[in-house]
Amino acid sequence: MGASGEQLGVMKLSDAIRKAQTLGLDLVEVAPTANPPVCKIVDFGKFRYDISKQEKEKKSSGTKLKEIKFRVNIDSHDYTTKLRHGEAFLDKGNKVRVQLQFRGREMAHQEFGMQLMYKVRDDLNGMSQVEMEPKMAGRNITMTLSPLPQARRKRRFSVEADDAEAEAENEKDNGSESDDES
To answer: Which residues does 60 contact at the CB level (< 8 Å), separation at least 6?
Structure first.
């Protein structure tokens, strides 16, 4: 193959080396097991860089594990914010580990923690499936969620939905104020 990608056909090794030298490039064997072996006329440094870049892309395409941490007495707004982040992670194809931490006397009411974990599971069921059920380990309850196939995902906690709810509440509040004034 030539420098610009065109096929040069079958040629003798000496002719291929001479052609590469006239262009100021290198002759690189791409497929040594083929009969006859396939070679390219390219800059060897750039060729190695492109190969390492392709290998790096292959490695990074795997799924990652993201983590969301909760506490038992989490506020409702904080809860929806964390679920929104969880949905974003799942939407990108990442797995999500949900961790609930107990501190001090919170350990006396572990059932509240399990209830919260089941609530998280139910709220994210449009985006994920449970890979590992919630289980207690020391002072933590952990659960792992994996994303559903792209076609089956349905977001519930998107930013737009929260904005629409806030606008509806503001309109309702503004309407009730005008009733109070009259």
So the answer is: none
Exposure of 71 in the CB half-sphere (CA atoms within 13 A): 9
How many residues in the chain? 182
Residues 6+ apart with CB under 8 A from 89: 66, 68, 96
Residue 70 near residue 115 (C-beta atoms within 8 A): no
Q: What is d(CA 177, CA 92) in angstroms, rounded to the nearest whole number?
A: 43
Task: Give the C-alpha distances (Å, rounded to integers) separating 14 from 21, 28, 70.
Answer: 11, 13, 68
Cis, bond preceding 36 (omega within 30 deg of 0)? yes
Determine the 3-state secondary structure of 40 from DSSP: strand
Domains located in the chain, CATH noted: 13-60 (3.10.20.80), 65-165 (3.30.110.10)
Give the predicted TM-score (pTM) of the model.
Answer: 0.55
Task: Please write the tens of the pLDDT for every residue from 48-66.
Answer: 999 898 888 776 666 788 9
Whole-angstrom Cα distance, residue 87 to residue 157? 7
DSSP H or E run through 26: strand 26-31
On the question of pLDDT at 177 being above 80, the answer is: no
User: At 114, which amino acid appears?
Assistant: M
Instruction: Say what the pLDDT of residue 68 is.
Output: 93
Span 161-177, average pLDDT? 55
Q: What is the pairing mode between strands 95-101 and 65-71?
A: parallel
